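Notes to self after the Tuesday call (sharing in case useful).
The group wants a holo model before anyone commits to mutagenesis around the pocket. I volunteered. Ligand is 6-O-phosphono-beta-D-glucopyranose. Logging inputs and output together so the record is complete.
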Amino acid sequence: MVKGCIFDLDGVIVDTARYHFKAWQRLAIGLGFDFTEDHNERLKGVSRMASLRILLEVGGLTLPEHEMLKLAAQKNAWYLEYIMKMTPGDILPGVPEFLEKLRIAGIKAALGTASKNALIILVQIGLSHSFDTIVDGNRVTNAKPDPEVFLLAAADLNLSPADCLVFEDAIAGVEAAHRGGMRCIGIGSPAILSQADKIIPDFKDVTLDLIEF
Ligand code: BG6
Ligand code: MG
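Result:
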């Protein structure tokens, strides 16, 4: 039986991909090239600096580390402008209801995300008290598909990985869950998340039957 659920943030709890995209595109345009939604798909689940490296590769640019750090800071400043306007209305459908079902059933909930802005986002959308533990990009050294983020979350919950279930929208996240010895439910398209143990489009009308397998 599942004793703990670990949730990715971006694309699982909230749709922040469009804000990341807006900020990355603004940066790319300033650097003189275009960055499309297709390119943006490659950034899902990827850390901020790794995302910047992919963006620069798209633009055919190589820059020294100190310039890259400045660009990443600029992108994050724009991203923060956008996410500071988020409200509970930005939570993806069915998420609060599902978290409440877990709480009533005594199943623990953790957040496991690469984002360093996780707490700001949770406060904006009113979910900062909805998780038993939060493991974010500030606590993790190795990015997904390394399982570090999920293993830390399981340890915080005092659970063994086999008792935990991960919810992820990114291929790297599904791989991270499996490498950590956890099962994973994909949120999104079966075409992208074929490696997940189960796939659902979102949390709308989801019951606890979903996690009994
Ligand atoms: C992941 C997102 O959750 O967090 C990525 O899917 C993002 O797109 C990464 O780059 C890091 O986020 P942040 O907020 O620390 O820049
Ligand atoms: Mg995600």
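Two things stood out.
The mean pLDDT is 96.
The radius of gyration is 17 Å.
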